[in-house]
Amino acid sequence: MTAPLLEIRNATVYRGESIVFDNLNLSIEQGESVAILGPNGAGKSTLLKLLTREIYPYEKTGSHVKIFGNDRVNVQQLREKIGLVSYDFQSKYMPITTGFDVVLSGLLGTIGHLYHHDVSEQQRQLTLDTLARLGLLPLKDKMFQHLSSGQQRRLILARALIHHPQTVIFDEPTNSLDLQGCFQVLSDMRQLVREGTSVIIATHHLHEITPEIQRVVFIRDGQVIADGQKAELLSAERISDLYGTAVQMITQDGYYQALPA
Ligand SMILES: Nc1ncnc2c1ncn2[C@@H]1O[C@H](COP(=O)(O)OP(=O)(O)OP(=O)(O)O)[C@@H](O)[C@H]1O
User: Fold this and answer.
1) Closest residue by CA, ligand 1 atom 29
2) Which domains does the chain have, with CATH numbers?
3) Is the ipTM of this complex over 0.95?
4) Atom 17 in ligand 1: which residue has the minimum CA distance?
5) Of 35, 112, 149, 194, which sits with the fewest C-beta atoms within 10 Å of its C-beta?
């Protein structure tokens, strides 16, 4: 039997002095695409950071966070299996980094400046191939600061894809993007799932839950409060309850949108 991508049992997780999760339980199978929803501060990013091993749970008996069935994982190998796309990550790049170096940095496990690294011909070619895969070759010599936020986001996606990961994590994937950038990233996400890569997204924006994503998890007050199929959970009643404000729902072509009720 294949081990789950993520198995969290009775985990307690602190950020600074405060508890974000207490006795958190959640499993995500390999190949499964999931959307994590919850109000500001609910712990969506913290949950993703448990999966990327940027945050560890408090150690206690009867509790674990296993990734691919293991308590302990080699973080470099993990980065090759799980890609990450987020505004936070994007904002760490220096303005003068070129598009090529952004994507190459995924291969080297670095952020930005690469002049002290020897880069092999094979690494260069892989970087070019990955840029080409997303139609980003025209950006290879452009500095990050001269690109739109949407172009930057797609370079971060290309960086994530350079290892052909089996899962890509998107933390608020279209945050700060205009409509064109937003739709392009949504299209990229759909394409990934169609090609067999699973996506895990954390969001407030229901339109980011692309039609291919069927499972939705609600988190609030340090717990998973609902976990199930999108058609069941994305109702006006349940979204109103999750966010504590009255909404009405619109659905079209497999997309959902919340409006004030
Ligand atoms: N570096 C940090 N140090 C201390 N507390 C933190 C840190 N980062 C986040 N927190 C706290 O942890 C809790 C969960 O934050 P997290 O960013 O995971 O929530 P979120 O659901 O992703 O929120 P948002 O929707 O606002 O992005 C919040 O109370 C937040 O204030």
Assistant:
1) 41
2) 6-260 (3.40.50.300)
3) yes
4) 45
5) 194
